[in-house]
Amino acid sequence: MPESPRPEIKIEPIGPDDEAAWRPLWDQYCAFYQVSVDPGVTSTLWARLQDPNSAVKALVARDAEGRVLGFCHYILHPNTWGTSPICYLEDLFTDPASRGRGVGRALIGRLAELGREHGWGRVYWHTHETNATARRLYDSVTDGADGFVRYVIRL
Fold first, then answer.
1. Distance separating alpha carbons of residues 40 and 47, to the nearest angstrom
2. Were both Cys, which of 8, 24, 52, 91 would link to 73 (CB 3.0–4.6 Å)?
3. What pLDDT is attached to residue 1?
4. Strands laid side by side in the 10-13 sheet
């Protein structure tokens, strides 16, 4: 299970004052996956992250000075195999200058804590098979991948 975050890393819900720090990280995340996201989509995502009624939520990791070091976006949804909501961790990104400090581990750890606190059934995610750095982290915080393969129909 994820370790507790290092004392200098604080995990909390994203807030309206975080936009200026979040946007460059979001742009870097999209560039990593070689996708071009329309600015209108990014604006809509930001609005959703600020809407308490939206299913799309976000956490940010901060250093001791309050600087945003990384984020995770997640979606809570019902499922057909249980009565508890489950959490899809859709995006996880750490500022490259902050990697190796436990930021990703702290974000995943806090998300798992939220799940336990609120009775979620599970937290799940996927990554590209070639993302070796992320996979090392993921393998260290879980019992490993569950063997499912993702299929996609682009519409």
1. 10
2. 91
3. 46
4. 10-13, 56-62, 68-77, 86-94, 123-124
CA gap 71, 67 in Å, rounded = 12
CA dist 23 and 133 (Å) reads: 23
Number of helices (H) and strands (E) in the chain: give both, helices first.
4, 5
State how far Cα 138 lies from the chain centre. 12
Residue 131, pLDDT score = 67
Burial code (b: 16+ CB inside 10 Å, e: under 16) for 3-38 equals: eebeeebbbeebeeebeebbeebbeebbeeeeeeee
* Residue 87 zone, left/alpha/beta (φ > 0; ψ -120 to 50; rest): beta
For residue 140, the model assigns a pLDDT of 65
- Which residue ranges of the chain lie beneath pLDDT 70? 1-7, 131-140, 144-151, 153
Q: In DSSP terms, which residues pair with 71 in a beta bridge?
A: 60, 93
